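@channel sequence for tomorrow's demo:
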Amino acid sequence: MKKIRKIKFFSNDDEKSRKIEEVLINDLKEKNFQIVKNDEHDLGISIGGDGSFLKMIQNENFNDNIYYIGV
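C-alpha cells (generated this afternoon):
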C-alpha cells in the first residue's frame, strides 16, 4: 500500500461543499498533508454528490495509481 502525502480536492461550487472542503483542508494541513491543485497527488477527494465523484474520476482518467474518496 502506498503512502498518501499529496491530496487534491474536487468540489461542487455550492457553499456547503466549499465549507466542508475548507474544514478538511485545514485539518489535513495540520496533519502535514500537502494540498495540491496539480496532477501530482496520491488521493483525490470529491465533495458533493455522485456527479462530483464521477467528474473527478473522469478528469483523472481513472488513474489506478491514485486513491479516490467521495464525501
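heads up for whoever presents: The two ends are 22 Å apart (CA to CA).
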